[in-house]
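Hi again,

Forgot to attach this to my earlier email, sorry! This is the prediction with magnesium ion bound. I've pasted everything inline since the attachment limit keeps bouncing my files.
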Amino acid sequence: MAVYAFWNNKGGVGKSYLTFQVAAEYARTHRDQKVLVVDLCPQANSSSMLLGGMIAGETAIESLAGLTPPRTISGYIADRIVSPYVDTHSGANYLTHVRSINPQIPDNVYLVCGDEELEMQAAGIQLACAAGPGNAWQIVHTWIRNLTEDVRRSWDQHDITVFLDCNPSFTIYTELAISAADRLIIPFSADGSSKRAVRSVLALVYGVQRRPGQPQSQFFRNTQQYRMALPRIYSYVGNRLTQMNNSSASAFRNVVLEIFAEVYRVYQGNPGAFVVHPNSGPAPTSRQTFRAMFEEQINDANTASVVSGALGIPMYKLTAGTKSFAGKSVHVNQSQLDRQQPNIRDFVSKIE
Ligand SMILES: Nc1ncnc2c1ncn2[C@@H]1O[C@H](COP(=O)(O)OP(=O)(O)OP(=O)(O)O)[C@@H](O)[C@H]1O
Ligand SMILES: [Mg+2]
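Structure tokens for the complex follow:
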């Protein structure tokens, strides 16, 4: 079972958008497998896109959250707040078969829908970490792993592929997601603050210190204390590459180079924190081979991306032409599709 988390400590870098596009593309190209998306962000953006976008998706989220118990991540978390240290094995009760709501999504995609209630539950999760047995923190940090196991068992499968969408801030539910993941994909955008955000990821999850004696995150220290596995870095993804003109392209290149340098330094000190892929391939031994393996780029598809998300139509299925949503009509150009469709296809083809 491979569990991928999309996370960066910075907002708006494309975590939800990529979760949506990657899960749909992965499902399309792996028809014999079941794909699970767990939306661990209270904003529920990837759920919204998967369930049909701005209108249909939002309506679906409302109705799933309105069930008793809610058929969302909050339904499951409520079970675990009541029974924090004894596995409830109830994860599969909170699944939604995405295609039954959004016909644009392949038949093999299932979702544990996001829910704004998760924000309110954070205090309860934290309380469960602090109370209870000596290793309460550790047990609570396996809740989402328990959930994915419940689903796998209910499907009677050895192997499923899971994508976790995360909130940018390193709150308790983001910690739970990171603890459940075995592979981490770090999207970043072209602006100057991206480098700091990627540094934060490396510090918060892997305890990478900028200066000797700098305090390490409680999360990192606890995972060490309880000998818990951390997700290993799968890739860092430059998202929304703007190719409008040469100067912005070269500014982006600089950001990418700086982020490469940060990540590569970690690789040199701790290659075990990375997933060599494809599986059989040799580990990178040079800057060049490292970048070829771990660095990805997804171009900005402008209006096409807006339409894809707003209508819940994955990029591979979107066609050029005039589309209407929210009472407006917009035009999707073939050139916009050409800019991103191959990126997503190539990126997903490397996901094992
Ligand atoms: N490659 C892309 N091309 C065009 N638009 C994009 C692309 N990636 C993301 N976007 C758009 O950028 C915006 C931010 O993306 P998204 O919501 O996925 O970021 P996020 O990292 O999940 O944000 P948050 O931290 O708030 O959860 C969205 O409107 C999304 O549609
Ligand atoms: Mg998001």
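The radius of gyration is 20 Å. The chain has a mean pLDDT of 95.

That should be everything now.

G.
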